[in-house]
Amino acid sequence: MVQVIAGVSPAAEDVIRRAVAETLVGIPVDECKISTGLDYMDEETIFVEVRLGLVAQPFDSELDTKLSVKIHQRLYDIGEHRMPDLNIEFADGQKIMGW
After folding, report:
1. pLDDT tens digits for 39-92?
2. 71 dihedral zone (left: phi>0; alpha: psi -120 to 50; beta)
3. Cystine design at 19: which of 29, 45, 70, 83 (Cβ 3.0–4.6 Å)?
4. pTM of the model
5. Pairing between β-strand 29-38 and β-strand 44-52 as defined by DSSP bridges
6. What is the b/e burial string over 12-39, where b = at least 16 CB atoms within 10 angstroms of the residue's CB?
């Protein structure tokens, strides 16, 4: 489920939704919230909060970076120049590779 809170075009929402679905294949996405605001440097930012369900296999932490880069590139490709800020929340007890 993707929930847009404020300030994001339908095209940007679609880009983010597709990037999440393509990158996190086989991992249940319980919630995805998209909002806008200022980051810690007072720069306009698109905040993407993804809450994942529990899976048996450890989460590959490289997927976090891949998703962030994919969202940023695709937003740029549609003319959106605000930097995305990705936050992934894992289910309690989720194992993560390398941790």
Report:
1. 999 999 999 999 999 999 999 989 999 999 999 999 999 999 999 999 999 999
2. alpha
3. 70
4. 0.88
5. antiparallel
6. bbebbbebbeebbeebebeebebbbeee
